[in-house]
Amino acid sequence: MVSGTAEGFLSFAQWLWHESGGAMFGGAHALRILVTGGAGFIGSAFIRQVMAEGADDVVNVDCLTYAASPQRIAGVADSPRYRFVKADIRDGARMAALLRESEPHAIVHFAAESHVDRSIDGPAPFLETNVLGTGALLEAATRYWCALGPGDKLRFRFIHISTDEVFGSLGPEGQFDETSPYRPSSPYAASKAASDHLARAWHKTYGLPVIVTSSCNNYGPYQFPEKLIPLAILRACSGKTIPLYGDGSNVRDWLHVDDHAAALLAVLQRGRVGESYAISASETHTNRSVVEAICTILDGIAGHGREQPFASRIELVEDRPGHDFRYALNPKKLNDELAWRPARKFREALQETVAWYVANESWWRSILATGYDGGRLGLGTKMAEPRAQLAEAGEK
């Protein structure tokens, strides 16, 4: 049984060795992976895991946007099996050259703009990176794959990382699965939906061995503090109010980032080409209950001598435009086919996560110092201005 650890990873490398007849690219037994967006929150967790589990060569391609943090992969940066390349996936010629140079057995594609609120304020970077960037990478990958020998072509994989947000909003019951129709609500979700369709089209049209995964909300150490859990922690620790959209009743499905990384290893090892896999720990909670749990944990860790509990800082604020009510993913296909189960329970892992942020204040303080102050995003005011101008012009 494969759980949230990466058991079975070495057997995949042995499989590659067996399938190649003991020879891979010049006779060296190696498992080479090119990861896009590997300085991001989830990509870095994946790199840390594959490096620990025996990958022989990992190339991390990242253009180091605001949400990237080299500290996330500091523990492996000095390894001779790891290489960082600063590059943009939208640069198709650069991607093609990197693939020829590094000769990977797999591409694991994380690189994306990912924050819904930012997509509401400014959709353009999401279209450019998530849609055009994925298209450029797919084209480069296809040309690389077509030039491989028969055995290497058979073994190659392109793992495309997506999100449950492409499916839109659920009512109070039910779960999304791999057959759910796409109904994205935000510019972010729409851009990811487009990238998913591109990946599947490249498989259908050109035969590129693509596998698509959709994950629920991730949490854990090193998450950029614009997302709900780290934002609540850092604002509480900074003596500020903790914003909660609407009435806080929106429901999210939570997955620890290390469990996500382990699930992706299982997909890389044993996933079927052309298939999709929903990744979830089946841990659904309202936003209010998550923030209240964080406050309770902080009361125990850092609340000594305080007159009021941290929950007194929770403040209901104007809701996000088009806010999806509930997400929930059904991981049955992943559980049954690939024998993966999460290793962490949400309540215990949340406690560990909060403790990590409290102990690593210097990390998130350094992020706040770069210009992001934890303030409100996603009201769409920048997009509302041209709408108002158009409406005014129409009245004249």
Explain the overall architecture.
By secondary structure, the chain is α/β, with parallel strands linked by helices. The protein has a domain at 9-219 and 255-282 and 322-344: 3-Layer(aba) Sandwich (Rossmann fold), CATH 3.40.50.720. It contains 14 helices and 12 strands. The strands form 3 sheets. A 7-stranded parallel sheet has the order 3-2-1-4-5-6-10, sandwiched between helices. The longest helix has 23 residues, at 124-146. It is globular, with a radius of gyration of 21 Å. Residues 5-15, 17-29 and 387-391 have low confidence and may be disordered.
User: Span between N and C termini?
Assistant: 68 Å
Average predicted confidence as pLDDT: 89
Oligomeric status: single chain
Low-pLDDT residue spans: 5-15, 17-29, 387-391
- CATH classification, class level of the domain at 9-219 and 255-282 and 322-344: Alpha Beta
Helix content range of the residues, please?
40-55%
Principal-axis shape equals globular
What is the CATH homologous superfamily assignment of the domain at 9-219 and 255-282 and 322-344?
NAD(P)-binding Rossmann-like Domain
Brief overview, please?
The chain is α/β, with parallel strands linked by helices.
SSE layout:
Elements (H helix, E strand, L loop, with lengths): L8 H11 L12 E5 L4 H13 L3 E6 L19 E5 L5 H11 L3 E4 L6 H6 L2 H23 L3 H6 L1 E7 L23 H20 L3 E6 L1 E3 L8 H10 L4 E4 L5 E6 H14 L5 E4 L4 E3 H16 L11 E4 L14 H7 L7 H14 L1 H8 L12 H15 L1
Parallel strand pairs: 1-2, 1-4, 2-3, 4-5, 5-6, 6-10, 7-9, 8-12
Antiparallel strand pairs: 9-11
Helix pairs in contact: 2-9, 3-5, 5-7, 8-10, 10-12
